Cupin domain-containing protein
Amino acid sequence: MAFDAKVVVTDRTGDGRSVFAKEARLEPSSVMVMPGSELYNIWGTGDGTPIVGAGDNPATVPFPFFPGPGGTRFIIVRFAPDSTPPTDAGMDEVVAEAEQKQPGLIGVFEPDAPGMHTTDSIDYGICVDGEIWLELDDGAEVHVTPGTCVVQQGTRHGWRNRSDRHCTMVYVLVGAERKSG
């Protein structure tokens, strides 16, 4: 299935009139660490309290990939099947490419547990196409299908696409502070 992502952004003029600030097709990003997958960095806000106002709305802040406390990210991830062949590139090249294309993405992943990661964020996700399994650190899993909404609260997890086609997930990430204990 072809996937055609588009973003429409609204804003306000100095006199308070609502306007369309941007309307554009989104190009996917791919990284060797996730062979065959596509990432769409739609929008992001800086850390702290987002602001809106008459012509004062800031531009997008899409990176680092995971926002700091109070920051947000709006992304689409099209997960390729797990059976997609891995890259032949060396680990140093894979890490450097991911950091160049998607700054901040690779640092949360565990080198000894492929796909497993923990973020300091609350992630709201919805499956819009395909299927995927959400795995937690104790091996517990849930099957995620279109219409399934996931609220990920800073837990260690991994996404496993055991199907034979892409799974499209839409996420809003909200940066949070991790409380120890």
